[in-house]
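WARN retry 2 of 3 for item q-0093 after timeout on previous attempt; input resubmitted unchanged.
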Amino acid sequence: MSIAALRQAYHARICQEVIRIRRGKLDRKGTAIEYPNFADGDNRSSISIAWAIVKLFNCLPNYEGLTEQTAGDRFELITKEFLEKGFELIEHLRPGEWHFSTIQTAISSFDQYEHLAHVAAAIKQDKELSSALGGNYIVTPDIIVSRASVSDDEINRLGQVVAKEDPVAALTPLRRVNRATIHLILHASISCKWTIRSDRAQNTRTEALNLIRNRKGNLPHIVAVTAEPLPTRIAALALGTGDLDCVYHFALSELLTATQMVKNEDQLDMLTMLIDGRRLRDISDLPFDLAI
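OK item q-0093 returned
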């Protein structure tokens, strides 16, 4: 299967399992305003762009009730499965034993952050440490991509590279024999946001900074995936550098077309700036970026 076909199937699942039509405030004629559930019902531009994306998907209107939490959970799962299948298509570019998960796993379970488990245990027993340090540094990403360490047999598969008696490569976590307790290596932390509000954007940045500051070892990819239709709200996450690698939209080409269709120049200018500034990419770019 091609990445384009996989992307199309991804959108079909989102249409069927996540996108719902809501009824909001009454318009001047006394009719309830209808809008897709990834739009802000109080924002005309958000509603217009979201409707245009739905029409580009050829989604059939679905009025069944769906809580915001359930929509977010389904979006996470469907996105995880898309990324996993997409990564499998290019596994020859980045071979290894890879794991994709939406199970809420604390970063202290992974090699670069295992020391945080000891810090958390110490803080739990010491009220002064608890009040001084808190516990917000242990992040629980929405989607995790991790890699298993490798055996010496695998390392030596094409020829002798390492030997137990040689005092070399004895500290790298990639070599399984170097760790008494095996921990997966965190490769990517992916924040999934069905929609973006200012508080959610701030939480994502805070989590990213914790991942950066508290690691012992290599920094994992730190990205966000969203279905937010308003470019100015996406900018709350995407603008600037230093915390997130990049933000990925679940349907960037459709978002660009939709923004052009509704003729919102301000939103189009912001969207163009985010794309040209390499701060916003399409979901189909992410499997390839994870292979870097």
